[in-house]
Structures are given as C-alpha cells and as structure tokens.
Amino acid sequence: MNVNEVDYGGLFYTINPEDKTAVLSRANSSNPLFRQEQALIDIEIPSFMYHNDEKYTVTGIGDRAFMECHALKSVDIPTSVVSMLRDAFFYCKSLKKVIIRGDIEIPLFKGVFNHTNLSDIHWYGDILKLHTFLSHMVSNESTYHPDYDAITIHIRKNSDAIEVTQWLEKYRFRNDENGVEAKFKIVKDL
C-alpha cells in the first residue's frame, strides 16, 4: 500500500495532503471474496473522505479502481469527481447503471467500461459536456465495448440545451481505431 493510500469505508484512496484531495484508487481487492463481494453491489462514492481528522475532497476514480468487481451493478458518482481513468470499471461484468452527478472527463486512455453490461447512464452534469464524455467513452473502448445502441442516457427534464439533446439523439459516435459506431438513446426523465 502506498504511503498516501488510506482505507476509508472499505475503499482505498490516494490522498494529497497539500490540496486536501483524494482519488479513489481501489476497492478492497486484497479481500479474497472481492470478485463476488456482496457489499460492492451498489456503490455510492462519497464526495469527501476523512483521514487523521482531516477532510479530503474525492476528485477522481483511479486506474483499475473497480477492475473485476463482478458483483458491482451500479455506481453513483458525486459532483466532486471530475475524472475517471484507465480501466476504472474494467470487467465489472454486472455493471448496468452509472449515475454521474457532475461533469466527468475521461482522458485518452482505453477501456473505462470495457467488459461491462452498461445499459443506463444518468447524467446530471452540463449537457454540453455530455457530448465530450460520450465521444471519449466510445473512442476509448477498444478491445470490447458495451452494446452502445442499448445504452440509454438519462438527462434532466429541464435541460436548457434542447438543440444539443436533439443533436445528440441523431449523432453517431465513431471509434476510428476499431470501426465501432454508437448511437445512444437520450431520454429526458431526471
């Protein structure tokens, strides 16, 4: 375990004492039952975690943080989290629902949702940033991707960018590396 990695609520975080931020670095994968861990079925990532009476803002989900957490079905990501890195949910074969409360960036790495059964993304963030999120998600999935046409993107009913949502409904995202095209179903029901 890294010197700056601490356990909080059964999840491990890499903390930065200087700016009081934390990145969720991994679930408790040292537990031999991790892949079937029933406690990790529905996860709500906290906005804050505490270590030595200090409060840290959770700002990211690190490389392979939940990799092979086979029982994980849903994850609720708070507004404080602004990035998800490589293979964050790789091979979470039961993962179906992701709730994104803020504006998350996926850097140009591969496979954030590879080998999942993702079917619902609830997007509460800026509707204009949703396009970037979806573009990066499709362009980053390489060896295996979810069935994109079966993914429904749920957005706020009062979304003020009507022309953007109409455009998203018609636009097909393409991964030039593997030729995959994706068209998501957009539903205004949040």
Please describe what this structure looks like:
A hairpin with a 2-residue loop joins β1 and β2. About 3% of the residues have low confidence. This protein has 190 residues and is mainly β. The protein is globular and about 50 Å long. It is built from 2 helices and 14 strands; from the N terminus they run ββββββββββαβαβββ. The protein has a single domain, classed as Leucine-rich repeat, LRR (right-handed beta-alpha superhelix) (Alpha-Beta Horseshoe), CATH 3.80.10.10. Helix content is 12%, strand content 32%. The strands form 3 sheets. Strands 1, 2, 3, 5, 6 and 8 form a 6-stranded mixed sheet that branches.
- Describe the largest sheet: 6 strands, mixed
Structural class determined from secondary elements: mainly beta
SSE arrangement, N to C: EEEEEEEEEEHEHEEE
Q: Give the beta-strand count.
A: 14
> Shape from CA axes?
globular
Overall number of domains: 1
Mean pLDDT: 80
Q: Mind telling me the C-alpha Rg? A: 17 Å
Q: Any chance you could write out the topology, listing elements then pairs?
A:
Layout (H helix, E strand, L loop, with lengths): L4 E4 L2 E6 L4 E7 L14 E3 L3 E4 L2 E8 L12 E4 L5 E2 L12 E4 L19 E4 L3 H14 L11 E4 L6 H9 L2 E3 L4 E3 L2 E4 L2
Parallel strand pairs: 3-6, 4-7, 6-8, 7-9, 9-10, 10-11, 11-14
Antiparallel strand pairs: 1-2, 2-3, 5-6, 12-13
